[in-house]
Write a sequence for this structure.
């Protein structure tokens, strides 16, 4: 079992397989970065898998593949199959913008993927285009349909933004409710890459908008989920991810690996260590030691107020 320096069990690994993306979401990557990490500097799927095995052997129970846009990296289904075959009962998930799901969903499912989180910030074509800076909505909706059809369990992530999609939160909730998907509204997290004018909403403000149509109660917090859940009178549960709350870090169970092999203990904390050399030298003992060192050094709380992270969300995987 992996325990961090503040006695929290760490059993959730997020692996970013690429920082590249086919969208330019205003809250994440409004502009194409000056340069991408060259492909030869990325860990191969086999190398990433070696480290995933280290984590699973040490007690990780949940692995999420993310990015950038993970479906942009060719052969992702092979990486998924490696993990799924190594541990059948692993909770294996993918976060995606859904744009490439129409062609990818079937092979992802066959490879052993169980569930996906899809970013859906608007149901209006023009607003979706404004947020992602590309005409994406129709293909995204086709991707969601395809994922549903092949039997992937779906959650929706939505970042409410002032003056952008705030008049659609109830529509997005209803869309998810009708289809049986959980929606999670994410408080916008300030970062240096986001479009300067982007302003999010606090959980309380999001709740006020939902309360215009629905009565709901706060659910008891489950395990280490980052989401605070709320239940409507008919039993439908939606979530709000509230990173601005003081106790958000108390149950953190996550560690993040970037595509170039940097192991990051916290989104808003500059320290990190590379496992690349250890993995490429097949030195599993060293990789395990680095994992334990990074966790020993995981901060009790994010350093949000002290340092606005210069690390991009598309690099860490959000
Ligand atoms: N491209 C995929 C996607 O968009 O789902 C996966 C990577 S994206 C970085 C992972 C998640 O981070 C998405 O749900 C996205 O909405 C969220 N995200 C990115 N930047 C954010 C920000 N500044 N504040 C809150 N959430 C953010
Ligand atoms: Fe790309 Fe996802 Fe970031 Fe949007 S949130 S720019 S889809 S990585």
């Amino acid at each position: 079992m992996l325990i961090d320096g503040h006695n929290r069990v760490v059993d959730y690994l997020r692996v970013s397989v690429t920082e590249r993306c086919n969208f330019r979401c205003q809250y994440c990557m409004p502009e194409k970065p000056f340069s991408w990490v060259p492909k030869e500097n990325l860990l191969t799927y086999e190398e990433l898998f070696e480290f995933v095995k280290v984590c699973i052997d040490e007690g990780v129970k949940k692995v999420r593949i993310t990015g950038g846009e993970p479906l942009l990296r060719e052969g992702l289904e092979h990486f998924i199959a490696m993990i799924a075959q190594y541990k059948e009962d692993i909770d294996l998930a993918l976060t995606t913008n859904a744009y490439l799901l129409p062609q990818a969903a079937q092979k992802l499912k066959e490879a052993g993927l169980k569930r996906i989180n899809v970013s859906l910030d608007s149901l209006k074509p023009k607003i979706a285009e404004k947020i992602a800076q590309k005409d994406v909505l129709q293909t995204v909706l086709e991707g969601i349909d395809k994922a549903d059809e092949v039997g992937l369990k779906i959650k929706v992530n939505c970042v409410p933004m002032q003056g952008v999609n705030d008049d659609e939160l109830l529509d997005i909730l209803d869309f998810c409710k009708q289809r049986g998907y959980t929606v999670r509204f994410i408080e916008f997290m300030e970062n240096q890459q986001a479009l300067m004018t982007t302003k999010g909403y606090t959980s309380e403000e999001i709740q006020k908008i939902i309360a215009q149509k629905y009565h709901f109660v706060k659910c008891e917090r489950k395990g280490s989920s980052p989401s605070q859940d709320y239940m409507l009178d008919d039993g439908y549960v939606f979530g709000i991810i509230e990173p601005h709350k003081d106790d958000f870090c108390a149950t953190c169970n996550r560690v993040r690996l970037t595509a170039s092999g940097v192991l990051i203990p916290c989104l808003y904390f500059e320290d990190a260590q590379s496992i690349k050399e250890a993995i490429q030298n097949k030195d599993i003992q060293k990789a395990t030691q680095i994992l334990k060192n990074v966790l020993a050094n995981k901060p009790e709380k994010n350093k949000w107020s002290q340092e606005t992270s210069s690390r991009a969300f598309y690099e860490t995987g959000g």
About this structure: The radius of gyration is 19 Å. The chain has a mean pLDDT of 94. Residues 12-316 form a domain with the TIM Barrel fold (CATH 3.20.20.70). The chain has ten helices and twelve strands.
